[in-house]
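Dear H.,

Thanks for agreeing to be a second pair of eyes. The structure we're designing against is below in token form, covering all 328 positions.
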């Protein structure tokens, strides 16, 4: 067995199609006109570059997110908040039974840098991995420029709440956030706030529907309000959630408009657990032992409610907190 270097990654010269090859530990990543090719000591895997870049974009922007980010049923990452497992076949029953699965652990900063560099090199100038497929060009073809502004978007995260003085701004035409084509009918009226003198910086309100109608991206929850570990992370959705998210905690969904269909599977094996259809007004809690992927036939608004407590993964993994949120 050869020792692989875990402290840095290697970048090879551009291939025939103009894309660089990345070596991260025992994994190598190559792209061609249509596909991402991932290889590891016991196997190799091919994904559409479309699926791969949209998942990679989320993994980078969300800093490996909560728990597991499956790019598909084979490849992905598990966040240990400081270090990250990168795996192939680890959460796939067939790979496990054939003993072909592979996992390597890396310090988060190195893997983050490697993923950022790969995302930037592999994304062409007319492709935006955060956009709905109806609102961006195709990712395919030989290397054609880059789209660094799109792939390094700042992640919105309110310190208290959107609209509070000094915090994240309410969206408007003036700050570059026009109303999306699918939300032309959403009322833009803002509430009137009459704060007592001295409380101007503490009393605030905003129209969340109007705010979301002006989101330029899809499948990208951002923190609009925070109270201790309680994070309201609404998002607008169109087409498919680019990752299959494996939870390490419970999360709540409130469907604010339209409809999303969720595929829910066992987190570790991928065995089908349920199909959930959520329509406007529906509320669901995703248990802590599943993975899920959503399908939004029409641009919709979803509130993802996260418990950000750093203690939760350990409490749940050791059985001191339940896998589900509530007993009726
Ligand atoms: C989730 O994994 O729960 C999730 C991620 C991104 C979204 C919506 C839900 O846009
Ligand atoms: Fe999730």
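And this is the sequence the design step returned. I haven't edited it by hand at all.
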């Amino acid at each position: 067995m050869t020792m692989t270097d875990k402290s840095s990654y290697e970048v090879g010269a551009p291939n025939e199609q103009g894309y660089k090859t990345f070596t991260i530990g025992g994994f190598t990543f190559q792209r061609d006109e249509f596909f991402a090719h991932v290889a590891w000591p016991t196997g190799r895997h091919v994904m559409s570059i479309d699926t791969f870049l949209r998942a990679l974009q989320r993994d980078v922007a969300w800093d490996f997110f909560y728990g597991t980010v499956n790019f598909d049923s084979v490849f992905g990452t598990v966040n240990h908040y400081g270090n990250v497992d990168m795996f192939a076949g680890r959460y796939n029953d067939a790979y496990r039974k054939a003993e072909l699965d592979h996992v390597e652990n890396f310090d988060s900063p190195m893997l983050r840098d490697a993923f950022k560099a790969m995302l930037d090199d592999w994304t062409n100038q007319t492709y935006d991995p955060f956009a709905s497929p109806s609102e961006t060009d195709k990712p395919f073809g030989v290397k054609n420029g880059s789209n660094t502004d799109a792939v390094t978007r700042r992640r919105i995260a309110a310190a208290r709440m959107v609209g509070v003085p000094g915090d994240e701004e309410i969206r408007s035409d003036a700050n570059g956030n026009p109303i999306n084509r699918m939300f032309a009918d959403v009322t833009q009226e803002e509430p009137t706030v009459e704060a007592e003198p001295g409380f101007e910086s503490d009393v605030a309100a905003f129209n969340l529907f109007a705010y979301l109608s002006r989101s330029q991206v899809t499948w990208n929850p951002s923190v609009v309000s925070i109270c201790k570990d309680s994070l309201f992370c609404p998002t607008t959705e169109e087409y498919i959630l680019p990752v299959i998210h494996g939870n390490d905690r419970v999360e709540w969904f409130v469907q604010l408009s339209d409809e999303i269909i969720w595929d829910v599977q066992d987190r570790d094996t991928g065995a089908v657990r349920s199909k959930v259809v959520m329509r406007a007004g529906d509320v669901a809690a995703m248990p802590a032992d599943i993975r899920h992927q959503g399908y939004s036939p029409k641009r919709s608004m979803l509130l993802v409610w996260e418990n950000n407590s750093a203690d939760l993964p350990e409490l749940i993994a050791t059985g001191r907190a339940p896998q589900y949120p509530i007993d009726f």
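Two observations from my side: The chain has six helices and 17 strands. The first helix runs from residue 49 to 61.

Warmly,
E.
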